[in-house]
Amino acid sequence: ISVAGFKTDTMKSGSPEGWKLEENKGTPYLKLEKEGDRFALHLKSDESSSFGIRKELKVDPVKHPFLNWKWKAVKLPFGGDVRDKNKDDQAIQIYVAFEASGWPAKLNTPVIGYIWDNEAPKGTITKSQQVLADKVRYIVLRDKSDVLNQWHCEKRNVSKDYKELFSDIDDGKLRKIEGISIYINSQHTESEAESYVYDIFFSRQ
Description:
There is one protein chain. The strands form three sheets. A seven-stranded mixed β-sheet has the order 4-7-14-9-10-12-11. It has one helix and 15 strands; from the N terminus they run βββββββββββββαββ. The chain has 205 residues and is mainly β.
């Protein structure tokens, strides 16, 4: 199931076709650039920026449990650390949102964030340190030890990750996927970040 194939460089209302731009702070910089036979999403943030794009989609994680993508970081936010709410900046974050577990939905939506952090080491698993965001759980896949400006391929068993991260919600009972988001931010550290991502899709194996 293709999520972000980016077959053209068409942008509508500041985001790729089929996606919605979400501006938290600052001025967003998003551009689609040629990468092989497709286009990659190029994101840049400055000392006051926090933004991303969101796409609603329905995916059964039992039938398509694997999320695949390619990404590269060009610049990491200086001192960015997901474990500290005052330094919680990353060059790229990919969020998978699931069906809400209660009301209000905004506070009860389980979300997995796969991130490229700076200071938090690879393998770090943590909850969001931001206020009222404890349903957002992170897995650090890359950190400052990884080579910058080089493509890295990722593949995650989202079903397995969900059961491990949300065992406190209905004993980890798996919920349907309802959306994907791609974010960048560097406003907490007042620095800069830059990254690329493309070829995001769900697969059976």
